[in-house]
# Entry
Amino acid sequence: MKKLILATLAGFVASMVSGMIAYMLFYQDLMTEMIATYPESMNSESDQNFLVGMGAGLAQAILMTYSFDKMNFNTLKSGALNGIWFSGGIWLVANMNNLFLFKFYDVSLMISDTLISAAFGLLAGGAIGWTLDKLK
# Structure
């Protein structure tokens, strides 16, 4: 149980740090523009519930850690490589749903967000795999 908790925390921290960097580099200007263009559809930054976003990241870290442990993705390399498809797949489905539901969502946003999410998966998965390896 200890290794699952610590691996989840490692994946969560890696995901949060990479998410903050991606937000500053990619999402911040996009979100500001979308909030201004679609004020009825988007929460302003002050109205966004950071805990909900953290909860999503924690849920993904728990899912990845439990799955990686069961599938023996328990090295830095196997965690990172499998984190790419795992996270990329989760967010491809979410982004395709967004493309289906929202007029302001376009294919380029779907693709770029999926690729960025896959990069998060590489980092989080690597952290999870490394932690599982160290706590065997």
